[in-house]
Amino acid sequence: ENALGVLRHIFALNVAHSLCEDPSYTIILLLNDSPVSFITSDQPVINTHSINTELLDAPTELEIYYPVSPKKAVIITMNPEQFKSDTIFVTSEDVNRYNSFVIDRSHEQIFANSESQLSELTFSLSR
What we know:
Elements: H1 4-21, E1 26-32, E2 40-41, E3 46-47, E4 64-69, E5 72-77, E6 87-90, H2 92-105, E7 110-111, H3 115-126
Parallel strand pairs: 1-6
Antiparallel strand pairs: 1-5, 2-7, 3-4, 4-5
C-alpha cells in the first residue's frame, strides 16, 4: 500500500511512453470553440471503448480520451481515419458526448469550469 502512489506514477509513465513510441497510435487534438466546456473527473483518462460496458469488463480495443483543459482534449487512437485530421474543432454535441464519457467513468468527483455547468450536470444526474 505504501508504494502504490509511486507505482501508479511509474505505470503511467510506462504506458505513456509505450503509446508515444508505438507508430500505430495517432494523437488527435480536439479544440473546443463551443460554449460548453470539457469536464474532467477523478478518473480523467477514459478508454472510449469501455463506454457502455460493465465497469470490470475488459475492452478489446484501446482509444484514450483525455481532457487537458476546458477548451482542449486529446485522443490517442489506432483508428485515425475516423477523424478528418489530427486537429479537430468540436461542436457542443461532441463536447457533451465526451463529457458523458467522463461522467460514465468517474468514481466520486466531477470537475467543471463553472459552477453553473456543474449544477446542470448534477441536476441531470439526479433525474
